[in-house]
Amino acid sequence: ILNTSFCMATVNKMEAVRYHGPNFPLTLETVPKPDPSTLSNDEIIVEVKASALCHTELHFADGTLNLGVKPMTLGHEAVGIITHVGSDVPNKRIGERVIVYYYVGCGKCRWCIKGEEHICGQLKAEYGFISDGGLAGFLRAPSRNAVVLPDDLSFVDAAPVGCGVTTAVHAAKMGNVQSTDTVLIYGCNGVGFGLVQLMKNVYGCSKVIVVARSESKRAKALELGADEAIAGSEASTVATAVRDATGGEGADVIFECVGKRETMDACVGWAGALGKRGRLVLIGYHAGDEHDFRCHPMPMIVYEQSIVGSVGATLEDLKEAIAHVGAGKLKTVVDSTISLSSFQEGLDKIKSCGCVGKIVCIPEMN
């Protein structure tokens, strides 16, 4: 005899990577699927086909990020197929291949009105940060957050666009990049590989230099168009190497993707890697006083340098990123694909800096 109640319960469940607070292990759990009957008028449900891992998940696990929401499903780089739509969403959207933008602003503040909801002070949702995210079988979101993918872009290659490429697109704007700039990308993997291609293929920068500890990552950066790659195993030697590579001038723009004190120290100061009127764009971060950013103001004043932070991306940045990838100007770099149940192996590989490119989880591989 078929136990229909058991079958229905199973059908309405999915696996998800769950966060239970800082310094607690992340776990794979069976949780309820989003319920189509509870969708708001403008919401959709996406069956996740691929979701990229990010260093952000490690920051949650070790307490670097603690936004006070638990338990919660992690993951903010999800792609898939729309399976259900709210009453105000055209039925023709069902079946669309989409990538999910992970911010939902209040829609009323000055930042949201300007299309910069990623810095909204009253976010309604932020998937994988304060709201259930995409390291799961299904994800619900407003329909405007579901951006259609090019037909020839696979789910695996599309997933890293959601953070790796969009973060690069936004950071380039924050750095006011010009075609005449010499650009330094300090720390090169997901975002860094996106920046290399963006600088060369979209901005047409005169010179792009990368710093990475891994020989394989330096090789990949050169393959993607970087003009020079510097070994970053000793941060104390980086500034001199950059100065040597730029005729003593230093870089016009530095994208700092590491966020450790020694790497930030290499960028600034009288003999730092940042040149006159240079722009230092801070992207990476680590917890603890030992990684505070410190710089005496005098060199920055005399050299007329500026520092700016860059976080996430706007919805328009995501659309631009997809357009660049669709046009062949950028491609994502995928280290490997794994099942969702193997997520911890993927995070361990990220933590050990053992991957070249992004690790992508496939829910249906379970």
- Termini separation (Å)? 27 Å
Tell how many strands the DSSP assignment holds. 18
Mean pLDDT: 94
Shape: globular
Largest sheet: 7 strands, mixed
> pLDDT below 50 for ≥5 consecutive residues: which ranges?
4-8
Helix content: 25-40%
Rg over CA atoms, rounded to whole Å, is: 21 Å
Secondary-structure element order, N to C: HEEEHEEEEHEEEHHEHEHEHEHEHEHEHE
Beta-strand content bin? 25-35%
Structural class: alpha/beta
Distinct helical segment count? 12
Summarize, please.
The protein has 366 residues and is of the alpha/beta class. It contains 12 helices and 18 strands. It has helices at residues 4-11, 55-62, 110-113, 155-158, 164-174, 190-202, 215-223, 238-245, 261-267, 297-302, 315-326, 343-351; strands spanning 13-19, 27-32, 43-52, 72-73, 78-85, 97-100, 103-104, 125-126, 138-142, 146-148, 182-186, 207-212, 228-231, 251-256, 274-282, 306-309, 334-339, 358-362.
List the helices and strands and how they pair.
Layout (H helix, E strand, L loop, with lengths): L3 H8 L1 E7 L7 E6 L10 E10 L2 H8 L9 E2 L4 E8 L11 E4 L2 E2 L5 H4 L11 E2 L11 E5 L3 E3 L6 H4 L5 H11 L7 E5 L3 H13 L4 E6 L2 H9 L4 E4 L6 H8 L5 E6 L4 H7 L6 E9 L14 H6 L3 E4 L5 H12 L7 E6 L3 H9 L6 E5 L4
Parallel strand pairs: 11-12, 11-14, 12-13, 14-15, 15-16, 17-18
Antiparallel strand pairs: 1-2, 1-4, 3-5, 3-9, 3-18, 5-6, 6-10, 7-8
Helix pairs in contact: 5-6, 5-11
